[in-house]
Design goal:
3-stranded antiparallel sheet, single chain, 40% helix, 17 helices, 523 residues, mainly alpha, 10% strand
């Protein structure tokens, strides 16, 4: 069985993708998220290019999970905040609850434009310059959700919890027998808000979960979240981040499938596709990462929605199709020194190795969960999505190499959750600086450019000089090898020369990979 570690350090021929930097590759030590592949013919970058622009405009979508606050909701939040702030922090939902007080103005065209770039196979948005995606780190910083804690598929564990569950169920049943014939969220709020009930806090969190975290039915209090609310009200930390991200991946794939399958004669079809994931998180992710596609942000960063609340979307978002590499912000969360979130405090001005103890602190363990491959289990257990951060290593301040394949571990929701929550086995982790400059390998550039076809003969001056320099170095080594040959045995000489030749071939192959990518104008 392969060692289950998160990262590896090795020497590679690498280069920066920044337009302002020189494009000459340099052999250097680099850090990579696992697994990686050393083969340029390993699979093929998925090319998501489809003629979706017209379909994007014609596809009718309802973002039903994009909920705004009810009248009186902020007052209820303020009241509960004064009583239960410490409990929310202990449960890891403090900023997530406060986010619900801010409205993110929806930009349908922006989101559907990014759906064009989504690839279900890689769980990423694929651009000509590489892959990017919404990660667990984004769920922590933007959404305010925890990646640590128990599964959302939690059970009632004592009599007190059982008593509270019975009371909540009684009220829910009462509402379903009303004239509305459903457990209406507005009526639920009227029943409990400022009531002084001994279960008001649980009822508040249940409504918050139904409306803003796991929306699944219009304005109805769902039974699925009652137990979750009871646990959170007692300060029990639950891993809400992977469950929310699973719903986002699921619905991005659903919309992409609908978009690709939309036929020319379907333009008069009045069918509407409804998605329930909280897509406001996707829009804020776009705004955080793509500077040219966002409005001017506010000054506050806590909670994160305060930075973007009530901001009007940019009118012209058509440029996103050609969004260039330099327009993407790889590490937006370490740049703001006023951001005191858990992960922002982990990043420092200089990258460092951290030796891991048996008991990890919360920040390190959270970062480890965000940066390793796993399975994301949704709230109902039927939604299980693969999580592949090694495909977007530069979003974690690491270098990017050809991503290796990852076998699924999703036979059941329990198996998937155990894979997600497995212990961190690394002896140490490298935490990059808050403004690190990650690189890519020459091998990655050749691999990522396979979708554009084979390259032609290389003939530019830079390529010729690069090969000449490599050959000149080899010539010097040959001379040294010949001088040493006179005093050694025949077998030793052959073995030594064979090793030297193998190393030189490897170097020239890397140079050739770089030049192929350059010829195809990737760099």
């Amino acid at each position: 069985m392969l060692e289950d570690t998160i990262m590896e350090e090795r020497e590679e021929l690498m280069l920066s993708l920044k337009p302002s930097k020189t494009h000459d590759p340099t052999r250097k030590l680099g850090l990579f998220l696992k697994p990686t592949s050393t083969l340029t013919n390993h699979g093929k970058p998925f090319d998501p290019t489809h003629c979706c622009e017209e379909k994007m405009c014609s596809l009718r979508v309802l973002f039903k999970g994009w909920r705004t606050q009810q009248k009186g909701w902020k007052d209820w939040v303020d009241g509960m905040h004064s009583l239960h702030k410490s409990t929310w922090k202990k449960a890891g939902i403090y900023e997530a609850v406060l986010n619900s007080c801010y409205e993110i103005k929806k930009d349908d065209n922006l989101i559907l434009g990014f759906v064009q770039k989504w690839c279900d196979e890689t769980k990423s948005f694929v651009f000509s310059w590489g892959e990017v995606t919404v990660t667990l780190e984004d769920m922590m910083v933007i959404g305010g959700y925890s990646v640590l804690g128990d599964s959302v598929d939690c059970a009632i564990v004592n009599e007190d919890m059982e008593r509270v569950l019975e009371k909540l169920m009684e009220v829910r049943t009462e509402l379903t027998r009303s004239s509305a014939n459903k457990a209406d969220q507005t009526q639920w709020m009227k029943k409990f808000k400022d009531s002084g009930s001994d279960i008001e806090h649980e009822a508040f969190l249940v409504l918050w979960l139904c409306r803003f975290v796991f929306p699944s039915s219009s304005a109805v209090v769902m039974k699925d979240v009652l137990t979750i609310g009871i646990h959170l009200a007692r300060g029990v930390k639950l891993a809400l981040a992977p469950a929310v991200l699973a719903s986002i991946y699921r619905d991005l794939s659903l919309l992409k499938t609908k978009m690709v399958g939309f036929k020319d004669d379907d333009h008069n079809d009045k069918t509407v596709t409804a998605v329930w994931a909280p897509f406001q998180l996707v829009q804020v992710w776009i705004w955080e990462r793509f500077c040219k596609l966002r409005p001017n942000p506010g000054h506050s960063c806590s909670p994160r929605f305060a930075k973007w609340g009530n901001k009007l979307p940019v009118k012209d978002v058509s440029s996103f199709v050609g969004s260039a590499l330099e327009e993407f912000c790889w590490q937006p969360y370490g740049e703001d020194l006023n951001d005191h979130s858990l992960l922002s405090k982990l990043y420092q001005d200089v990258g460092r190795w951290v030796v891991l103890d048996v008991c990890l602190d919360e920040g390190l363990e959270s970062w480890a969960r965000c940066s390793r491959v796993s399975e994301l289990v949704g709230i109902d257990g039927n939604c299980i999505e693969q999580y592949l951060p090694h495909r977007v290593a530069m979003q974690f301040g690491m270098n990017q190499d050809v991503p290796g394949d990852v076998a699924r571990t999703n036979e059941t929701s329990e198996v998937a959750w155990n894979f997600y929550s497995r212990p961190v086995t690394d002896a140490k982790l490298y935490i990059p600086s808050r403004v690190s400059e990650p690189h890519v390998t020459a091998r990655y550039l050749e691999w990522s450019n396979k979708s554009t076809g084979s390259c032609s003969q290389l003939c530019d001056d830079e390529g010729k000089n690069l090969v000449k320099n490599e050959l000149r170095t080899e010539g010097s080594e040959d001379a040294m090898g010949n001088n040493d040959a006179g005093g050694g045995s025949g077998d030793d000489e052959i073995n030594a020369l064979g090793l030297k030749l193998e190393a030189r071939i490897g170097k020239l192959e890397e140079v050739f990979q770089y030049l192929k990518a350059k010829k195809q104008k990737v760099i």
